[in-house]
Amino acid sequence: MKKETKKPQQTIRIDAKTPPIMVDHFDFFAREDHICFVRMSTILPEGITEQGKFFMTKESLRNFIDGATQVLDSFADTDAQKNSIN
């Protein structure tokens, strides 16, 4: 019988000093090396203001978007999605 190995539990460190932000818009840009740049912005009376930006792998971004679509119960049905290769 094969012995099961337990994966170590990952803990998320939460910084209570980091304030939440309001985001109205995401911009996604992919590089050829499968690293994506993500910019978050919000619309204020003064204009559009960048709230944050970060880099993540294409796989992590895909997981992020998959999670968001599950929460929203909304899945895009596009030709690009049907023809995409993982």
Alpha-carbon Rg, integer: 18 Å
Multimer state: single chain
Overall, the morphology is extended
Q: Beta fraction of the residues?
A: 25-35%
Structural class: alpha+beta
Helix proportion range: 10-25%
Count of alpha and pi helical runs: 2
Q: What composes the largest sheet? A: 3 strands, antiparallel
Strand order of the largest sheet: 1-2-3
The pLDDT mean sits at 85
Distance between the termini: 34 Å
Stretches with pLDDT under 50, minimum 5 residues:
none
Number of strands: 3
In sequence order, what are the helices and strands, one letter per element?
EEEHH
Which short descriptors sum up this protein?
alpha+beta, 2 helices, 3 strands, 31% strand
Note down, in words, how this protein is organized:
The protein is an alpha+beta fold. The protein has a domain at 25-75. It is built from two helices and three strands; from the N terminus they run E-E-E-H-H. It has a three-stranded antiparallel sheet with strand order 1-2-3. Strand 1 and strand 2 form a beta hairpin. The chain is extended, with a radius of gyration of 18 Å. The chain starts with 24 loop residues before the first strand and ends with a helix. The model has no long low-confidence stretch (mean pLDDT 85).
How does the SSE layout of this entry go?
Elements: E1 25-30, E2 35-44, E3 47-57, H1 58-72, H2 79-83
Antiparallel strand pairs: 1-2, 2-3
Nutshell version of this structure?
The protein is of the alpha+beta class and 86 residues long. The chain has helices at 58-72, 79-83; strands at 25-30, 35-44, 47-57.
